[in-house]
Amino acid sequence: MNYSLDELKTLLTGGLIPAVPVMFDREHRFHERAHEAYVAFMSSQPIAGIAIWAHTGRGLLLDDATAGRVLQQWRRGTPEKPLLAGVGARSNQSDPDEATRATLSMASAAAGSGADALLVYPPCWLKHHDRRESLIVEHHRRLSDLGLPLVLFYLYEAAGGVSYSPDVLDQLLGLPNVLGIKMATLDSVMTYQDVARQIKSRHTDKLLITGEDRFLGYSIRRGADAALIGLGAVCCDLQSELIEAHFAGNAERFLDLSDIVDQLAEVLFIDPMEGYIGRILCALAKLGVIPAEAANDPWGPALTPHEIDNITNVLNSLNVQVE
């Protein structure tokens, strides 16, 4: 579907947008059957949209054929849900023009296959460039020219992203077709607070989208309009109800759910942080959503028995059926 900015804003406001993983077998081959089962499962969950090709979905590491199959399955399996596709260039890309061309190519492929909006990876290749700020704006301007709604992505430098100054943020949020910004600052609450204040005071027509898995409840209290998180790939009902409780003004239920959701985040999003995708896949296997043989992340570290036990124990404490 071709959503206008206003239509997409209405659909996503107050909702959960899971950043979804991709299933691979033990030989690191795309597990198509498990992925189809996961898509079917998620189609019945209380979610506002789906984010594919994000970091959780290893979007910059998938080969073209697998990336295409992933998008096709989500488009076919969730036709009524807005589909946001992550677009960017590999982190080892150093030439700004080439990196932008690679991003534009990925964006065109997403648009041609039915994506409704683009989630723009931070251009980390510009982190140390002497024309960093102007090139960041130009990179996003060229993406904006494609015509699809854009979600900016602020990933704090300590987490592998690139910081945007207040002036750059103002310029980016003023570009045509920008829907809003996803904030993922990891352990920098100050940065989240500062950017949230800037958006709420100077860009009130834009969505503030939290990507803060480890302080989800607080980030919603501090102004987030929606949540686009890897945590949302598992136990969607708890997180959707958390967001709903906030917007309904049900403080007691909101606080209870914040504590519960934090328990889950605190066993999935831990050091080494790159292992969170494997932990999410492990949780999905424990819940019987995907087979254990498909709970493999080719690019992440192997899970330890202690991690697996912690995930199992937390899922049991949430009173969900664990296999």
Structural features, described:
The chain has helices at residues 5-12, 32-42, 64-77, 96-112, 132-144, 166-173, 189-202, 216-221, 236-248, 251-268, 276-286, 305-317; strands at residues 16-18, 50-52, 83-87, 117-120, 150-155, 178-184, 207-210, 226-229. Helix 2 (32-42) runs parallel beside helix 3, helix 4 (96-112) packs parallel to helix 5 (132-144) and helix 9 (236-248) packs antiparallel against helix 10. It contains 12 helices and 8 strands. It has an 8-stranded parallel beta sheet with strand order 1-8-7-6-5-4-3-2, sandwiched between helices. Helix content is 45%, strand content 11%. The protein starts with a helix and ends in a 6-residue tail after the last helix. The radius of gyration is 18 Å and the shape is globular. Helix 6 (166-173) links the parallel strand 5 (150-155) and strand 6 (178-184). It has 323 residues and is of the alpha/beta class.
